[in-house]
Amino acid sequence: MAQMNMIHALNSAMDVMLGRDPSVVVLGEDVGYFGGVFRCTEGLQRKYGESRVLDTPIAEGGILAAAIGMGVNGLRPVAEIQFADYIYPAYDQIVSELARLRYRSAGEFYAPVTVRTPCGGGIRGGQTHSQSPEALFAHVAGLKVVMPSNPYDAKGLLISSIEDDDPVIFFEPKRIYNGPFDGDPHKPAVPWSTHPKGEVPDGHYTVPLGKADIVRAGSELSIITYGTMVHVSEAAARGLGLDAEIIDVRTMVPLDIDTICGSVARTGRCVIVHEATRFGGFGAELSASIQEQCFWNLQAPILRVAGWDTPYPHAFEWEYFPGQARVARALKAVMEAA
Amino acid sequence: MAQMNMIHALNSAMDVMLGRDPSVVVLGEDVGYFGGVFRCTEGLQRKYGESRVLDTPIAEGGILAAAIGMGVNGLRPVAEIQFADYIYPAYDQIVSELARLRYRSAGEFYAPVTVRTPCGGGIRGGQTHSQSPEALFAHVAGLKVVMPSNPYDAKGLLISSIEDDDPVIFFEPKRIYNGPFDGDPHKPAVPWSTHPKGEVPDGHYTVPLGKADIVRAGSELSIITYGTMVHVSEAAARGLGLDAEIIDVRTMVPLDIDTICGSVARTGRCVIVHEATRFGGFGAELSASIQEQCFWNLQAPILRVAGWDTPYPHAFEWEYFPGQARVARALKAVMEAA
Amino acid sequence: MASQSRLHVPKTPARPGDQPDFSYLKLVPAGETRRPDVGAASTDLRFLSEELVRVLDDSHQAVGPWNPHLDAKELQIGLRHMLLTRVFDDRMQRIQRSGKISFYMRSLGEEAVSVAMAMALRPSDMLFPSYRNQALYVVRGRPIVDLMCQLLSNTRDMCKGRQLPVMYHWRNGNIFSISGNLATQFPQAVGWAMAAAIKGQDDVAVSWLGDGSSAEADFHHALLFASVYKAPAILCVVNNQWAISTFQGFAGGERQTFAARGPGYGIAGVRVDGNDFLAVHAVTQWAAERARTGGGPTLIEHVTYRAAAHSTSDDPARYRPKDDYERFPLGDPVLRLKNHLIALGEWSEERHSALTAELEEHIAKSWKEAVGFGTLTDPPRLDPHLMFEDVFRDMPEHLRRQEAELRAEQDRD
Amino acid sequence: MASQSRLHVPKTPARPGDQPDFSYLKLVPAGETRRPDVGAASTDLRFLSEELVRVLDDSHQAVGPWNPHLDAKELQIGLRHMLLTRVFDDRMQRIQRSGKISFYMRSLGEEAVSVAMAMALRPSDMLFPSYRNQALYVVRGRPIVDLMCQLLSNTRDMCKGRQLPVMYHWRNGNIFSISGNLATQFPQAVGWAMAAAIKGQDDVAVSWLGDGSSAEADFHHALLFASVYKAPAILCVVNNQWAISTFQGFAGGERQTFAARGPGYGIAGVRVDGNDFLAVHAVTQWAAERARTGGGPTLIEHVTYRAAAHSTSDDPARYRPKDDYERFPLGDPVLRLKNHLIALGEWSEERHSALTAELEEHIAKSWKEAVGFGTLTDPPRLDPHLMFEDVFRDMPEHLRRQEAELRAEQDRD
Ligand SMILES: Cc1ncc(C[n+]2csc(CCOP(=O)(O)OP(=O)(O)O)c2C)c(N)n1
Ligand SMILES: Cc1ncc(C[n+]2csc(CCOP(=O)(O)OP(=O)(O)O)c2C)c(N)n1
Ligand SMILES: [Mg+2]
Ligand SMILES: [Mg+2]
Question: What is the pTM of this model?
Answer without folding.
Answer: 0.98
